[in-house]
Design brief:
This protein is an all-alpha fold. Helix content is about 60%, strand content about 0%.
Length: about 70
């Protein structure tokens, strides 16, 4: 069963990077949810210049999402 970030939004459940990391570790969410959240996060936090956020927002397939999330 896949859980998408949209379920959190629809039910007004607060979530953050930790929530997404746990969801990824439990194979409940997809990488695309993390990419979408990173894009949304950067759009709402223009002052952020951390490369981890930027890499997540780019959605490249050949890097380690888990390690990036842990670093965040």
């Amino acid at each position: 069963m896949d859980i998408t970030v949209d379920i959190f939004k629809q039910n007004k459940i607060k979530y953050d990077w930790i929530t997404l990391n746990v969801g990824l570790e439990l194979n409940l969410i997809e990488y695309s949810d993390i990419v979408n959240y990173a894009v949304e996060f950067l759009a709402n936090h223009l002052e952020i210049s951390n490369q981890n956020f930027i890499q997540l927002a780019c959605g490249v397939d050949d890097f380690d999402y888990e390690n990036l999330l842990v670093d965040i």
